[in-house]
Amino acid sequence: MVNVAGLTGIKVMIIDDSNTIRRSAEIFLVQAGCQVVLAEDGFDALAKIADHQPDVIFCDIMMPRLDGYQTCALIKKNPRFSATPLVMLSSKDGLFDRARGRMVGSDQYLTKPFTKDSLLQSVAAFAPKREES
Q: SS3 for 43?
């Protein structure tokens, strides 16, 4: 079980063309106390990223117009977001996809459909470390 107390206030961006995936991720994350920014595709994400400055980004691979690899590469090329953790989302669990994701700068790979625990574990792994008060 993930310690969700440490996730409160963390800003997470979900980039996925599937409304179902976006909504389920949003529900899981909001229940854990995260702030959530949703984007339907790479262009939508690139338009929103500077305004919202997410702490962690989840990006689907298979999307229209701009796929996840292209989106990830563009985000990582921007000096402001090059250090922002980016997790690739895919329904394919192939070695090639993982390797290609690493090549464009992704930090982790999560297979869909993901569970609430696996999603929150990914956020917790990359969450900015908070000072214990």
A: helix
Sheet with 86-90: strands ordered across:
35-39, 11-15, 56-60, 86-90, 108-111
User: Where would I find the H helices in 3-105?
Assistant: 19-31, 42-52, 68-77, 95-103
User: What is the C-alpha separation between 63 and 24, in angstroms, rounded?
Assistant: 18
Q: What's the Cα-to-Cα distance from 4 to each of 30, 68, 116, 117, rounded to whole Å?
A: 11, 27, 11, 10
Residue with tokens 């529900």: 27
Q: Going residue by residue through the chain (133 aa), what tens digit of pLDDT does each one get?
A: 556 667 999 999 999 999 999 999 999 999 999 999 999 999 999 999 999 999 999 999 999 999 999 999 999 999 999 999 999 999 887 889 899 999 999 999 999 999 999 999 999 999 876 544 3
What superfamily does domain 7-123 belong to in CATH? Response regulator (3.40.50.2300)
For the whole model, what pTM was predicted? Answer: 0.93
